[in-house]
Specification:
71% helix, single chain, mainly alpha, 2 domains, 0% strand
Length: 196
């Protein structure tokens, strides 16, 4: 007939989408705080990530403290990603999508009961190399390099745009205002301005 699929991913998707519409359920002062305080927004963003990490990943930590620490590191990645030049942002998202799809494929392959010889060999090699310098590690370092270069590029663009009004705290944690009039700046010029 038809295969019964797990429905929890749909529930998680609905939670994420509906979260934007739930603010009216909060008390007025809390709504105002969430609307105007970027630090509270970051706190709730981190708590949301912590929640989803704890329910979706088995190997993120062996204790609550480790889960909190690892989720914080992931949230820092997220903050840096939101402070990236648009081209680097897209490139990083493509790499993240590739990693996610590869993770799903690997998980499915591990669950497969009747593996052929090449699948067994692949899993054997993967298990031996996963803690060494394998594809996961290379892609992780690639993301870190792209995050740093992309963040510095975007910082340089904002330093050019805001000149003396540029502030590091506002850049990393402040409210994003999309004016739509940021100057198009060459990447090398933006990097040079970021480092000045």
């Amino acid at each position: 007939m038809f295969k019964i699929l797990p429905v929890y991913p749909i529930f998680i998707l609905l939670l994420i989408i509906s979260a934007n519409y739930l603010a009216d359920l909060f008390p007025c002062r809390l709504r105002d705080l969430l609307e105007h305080n970027i630090y509270i927004k970051h706190l709730f963003g981190y708590l949301t990530l912590l929640f989803f990490v704890s329910i979706t990943l088995d190997n993120i930590g062996s204790s609550v403290n480790e889960l909190i620490k690892n989720s914080f590191v992931l949230y820092l990645y997220f903050v840096l990603l939101t402070k990236n030049n648009k081209y680097f942002f897209i490139l990083i998202c493509i790499v993240l999508a590739f990693i996610y799809l590869a993770h799903i494929e690997l998980k499915l392959l591990k669950k497969k009961e009747n593996k052929n010889d090449s699948e067994k060999l692949f899993l054997d090699i993967y298990e031996k190399r996963k803690d060494k310098f394998g594809l996961d590690t290379i892609l992780h370092y690639l993301i870190l390099i792209l995050l740093v270069i992309g963040t510095l590029t975007y910082m340089g663009e904002k330093k050019i745009e805001y000149k003396d009004k540029f502030n590091y705290l506002t850049f990393f944690l402040g409210k994003q205002v999309c004016k739509g009039n940021s100057p198009e700046v060459d990447i090398s010029k933006a990097l040079k301005n970021a480092l000045n």
